Amino acid sequence: MSILLKGLSVSKGICIGKAILISKDEINYVPSFIKKSQTKSEVNKFVKSLSNIKKEYKKSRDKIKDNPSITKLMETQLFFVEDKDFQKHVINNIENNLYTANWAIATEYRNIKKSFDDIKDKYIKERLIDIKQMVISLLDLLQPSKKENVFSKVNLENRFIVTDEITPKDIIDIYQNKGLGVITSHGSTSSHSAILSKSLSLPMMIKVQSSREIIQDNDIIIMDSDDEVIVVSPDQFELEYFKKLQSKKYSLQKDLRKVLKKKSLTNDGTKINIMSNLELSDEVDFLNNDCDGIGLFRTEYLYMNRRDLPSEKEQISVYKKIFKSMGNKPVTLRTLDIGSDKEVSENIKVGEIAKNPALGLRGIRYSLNEKYIFKTQIKAMLRAGYNNSLRILIPMITSLSEIIKTRELIDDVKLQLKKERKNFTNKYDLGIMIEVPACALQSDELAKHVDFMSIGTNDLIQYTLAIDRIDDEVSSLYDPTNPAVLTLIKKVIESAHKYKIDVTVCGEMAGEKSYTKLLLGLGLKSFSMHPQAIPEVKNIILNSHINKIKRKISAILRSNDRLQRQKLIDNL
Ligand code: PEP
Ligand code: MG
User: Fold this and answer.
1) Full-model pTM
2) How many angstroms separate the alpha carbon of residue 229 from the centre of ligand 1?
């Protein structure tokens, strides 16, 4: 019988495939398969590690004979290593499900863990810790590089990843390994993982309650994240229904994409810039040049999922690829915005003592602290920008001094490039992200020192309302329409107009069709969003009359009731 689950959609799409359960909190699961011909050697690998671990335990037990409590512990662990049921189940998983030894072990551990849920006896319940330790040792033996990314080098084709939480690093791995979709039991819609999944068109639903308990490995799943529903083990009727829905939606989307070829003018003839956000340079291939440029390239993803830093040469080739696909349209390269929920590899230290990473060494703070990394990036940007339309964007600015220091550093880099006799551009625009209230409040002054401003509503909302954007416990309070947020956005737009510089919104609000008219009413003429959102948002822009909207804006700014505000916004 099929089971229906509900959740929150962060990245839309209808897809059908099989589930892989991954528990990152407990044991580092590595969902991987072998070929039928490899079963014998995989079973041997498992048996050998089991016997090695047995020897190790025996050695340790004999060494510490004098300590009865440790001896007892070793005895218990030995008991589990010798447990025939455990061995039988793992071997069965290898032989019949073609799991690798380590995944077979991890899966069996999860089953054991589940069976412990109903045990009331405290002493027996605590033995799970001993089993877990034994399993960890076994996995270590089988796969020494246990710290590798859970999803890397694994074929996830036609598979849904079902897990508790997901990081941006994981999303990249899942995307690169051709995963079908992601289902999590926690998460928030404004996290970088959510943004990435949208950008990469990787369907994802979060806060799917009981998903980890109900969905089993290899279960067939239908995920309709357009309607926020998941069907576990669907029947034939459901399968056919969703397949039809899938093709219907596909043709609707195709129709909507026709809007891309039209000029982006409102009903009253105002030109609105619609640019694309980009996370991975590969995405540029899907853009078809159907936008007014790149409003935000989040370069931090170049630094993730690897142990080394991207060299100047490597960065140049990535940036050039984007310039090339955009022709002479502007390309906005944001300098490294590492920190907070964007983890980096161990070699890049980010706020070693950051108890609260969102307020720590993030964005420009990190870059000015790690000048070598920053200079390499600026060099690559200036070199790739030669004969191209380059806009350099600085994240997490809070004061004028950071802009001045950045300009000084860029001047240093130019001198260096001159000495090295390298071609580089002198004609670039320098802009700042407005994502901290301090920066928004000073926008009148800061606008005099930069060529453009880009409003990062994701962080601006986080910092204005003191809501951690990745904390699902407070996510219901994350309100883009809060009057404080709207007042700051309005102020920044007005400051930019006063000093005749460009201002764009590149946070998720720009790609949310329910806020398009609101932003137009606040005076915005430039949007940057994930590419999939462009057709819908553009369609609304083409059907908007700015002057009519503007008349209704002050009532929204005055309203202190969220529901009433939303009604007013819906009626724009
Ligand atoms: C933002 O904060 O709105 C933004 C675009 O930057 P990021 O989401 O990468 O923090
Ligand atoms: Mg930001």
Assistant:
1) 0.75
2) 28
